[in-house]
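Possible regression after last week's pipeline update?

I re-ran a chain I had predicted before the update to compare outputs. Posting the input and the new output here so someone can diff against the archived version. Not blocking, just want to make sure nothing changed silently.
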Amino acid sequence: MLRTALYDWHRQAGAKWVEFAGWEMPIQYQGVIAEHRAVRTQVGMFDISHMGRFILRGFQVRAQLNRLVPTDLSPLLPGQSQYTVLLTEQGTILDDIICYCLTDTDWLVIVNGARRIPDWEWLQHHLTGITMEDWGSSHLLFAIQGPGAIPSLQPCFQEDLSVLKRFQHQPMTLRDPESTPVFVARTGYTGEDGCEVMLPVAAGLWLWRTCAERGIPACGLGCRDTLRLEAGMHLYGQDMDTSTTPLAAGLGWLIHWHKEDFMGREALVQQRQQGLTQQLVGLQILGREIARTGYPILSAGEKVGHVTSGTLSPTLGIPIALGYVPPSLAKVGTPLSIAIRSKAVPAQVVKRPFYRSPCPAPR
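New output (post-update):
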């Protein structure tokens, strides 16, 4: 299995391991609940170096990338970024990604770890005259998240991190012995404020160890999943995949219909006209049972859909889930049930996100 450059540190810190998309990754250190609460109340750091990091260079990179996503990238200025999705010709989702405009001719695209190789091949096939660089082995990627993320991380940088607004990014300089320039973005996958930092391996080892020495706890993929689910964020491969469209997945806001030319547009127009057969909803289970991926969703005793993600919310103290149901059953307050161990457990459709941080990143 693949390992990040921090593998030895994780092992010495007592990490428990999980295989994820071919990577051996820490799932927890002190425990999922403790790490989850650290991020919600103060700060935690994640090694997310398994994710794909592609640099695209060329005079036509903006225009060509813009044709592969439904969101209009043309207004982005250097220092701005956009969450969006790569689409097939059928309008279904290949991956959800973030596109960062570095300069007019240089862009960074960060993709999911499980889609790193397929996305690379997809981009290579559809982009012409564009130079692509895979920074996966040369750079590490960290996420420092929580209401205390910025002040906790600030002593490691020469510039003022607070100048960054939500989804903004810029080069910053570490206070390491080499004064290393690094990439810092005010983005994340937890529903909290924070930064994602991409930097060369040697500088990454320095930053991670320095943050650990300053008391920032390491967090694993276990609480990353519970955090993102509370915040109503999708996980590719569970809540969306190549069988779902942005309209069905509740990501219709990513589609900028004024764009006349993008991959899958015709199929999405047709789906909008014909209507959906299933759509993603938030669910609260009315009991203590936990709904897991694949569990049937029932209405009047009949299966009408399935759960895609579920957990016991550490923050709210209740079981929550995402799942697909017919649009006629998607209204908030609709009573449903989940088949859990051959028992129909009551549930209801609720508004997403399940949890909203009182300390969001500034816009």
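Follow-up from reviewer: compared with the archived run. The CA atoms of residues 51 and 354 lie 26 Å apart. Marking as no regression found.
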